[in-house]
Here is the input.
Amino acid sequence: QVQLVESGGGLVQAGGSLRLSCAASGRTFSRLAMGWFRQAPGKEREFVAAISWSGGSTYYADSVKGRFTISRDNAKNTVYLQLNSLKPEDTAVYYCAGSTFVFSTLAMGIMTTYNYWGQGTQVTVSS
Here is the structure.
């Protein structure tokens, strides 16, 4: 079993930056593909970014490509999401998730691919 705990959210002005962290418990973290999703008020949860178990492959939603960067440190059982050039429309609760599936761009954008979910961290971007 893997437990995921997100941190790093907060209130930031448009154009600012934040770094989200997701700390995992359990010995299988290095075997998991990891993803970030977000859910804005009144909207469905949507895919943001994903990274393979090795960190060698990444995948981003078009809406965040070039602004957000996903990375991981398997020695620390942690995955990160660097958020730059933030916009008010990035306001949402951000969730990290872990998947035992083999990494592919087809699979990583789908919520049901993921076995484990964190509780989320709020990101609010003011205009």
Notes: Helices lie at 105-108. The two ends are 40 Å apart (CA to CA).
